[in-house]
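Protein modeling request. Please complete all fields; requests missing the sequence field cannot be processed.
Requester role: graduate student
Desired output: 3D structure, token encoding
Chains: 1
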Amino acid sequence: MSSARIERYALLLISVFMLPTAVQATFAPRSWFDDFPLGRGWIAAEGGAYDEHLVRDVGVLFLALVIVTAWAAMRSELTRAVSVAWLVQGVLHLVYHVGHLDGLGAADQAALVVSLASIPILALIALWAGLARHRPS
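Delivered output (137 residues):
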């Protein structure tokens, strides 16, 4: 498979993985806070107070980044910049949550870490493929 396809598919997978989160937080913020993911309640389990404004802001930001990511992947433009953005977001998000796993059972802890790690891993794959694609022959 060509590096351009690897880059494109990795970015499109990030878009697909993040779209449900973005849509739910944007349009059903209370449900996202109480139930995400799939009724497991990972966010509410941390014990913080619900803030509709903050949840909607997070949802809209994710939605905007999903749109930019899908656009970049389909047009092969700015893919390295988008990959770096997801890498930064993904690593910092993962680091935070790894330090705050209290209140979740072992299965939820594992699922949370694996699901959060998937974004920076895919971003690294896209970045690697993008660098290979743009490397002088």
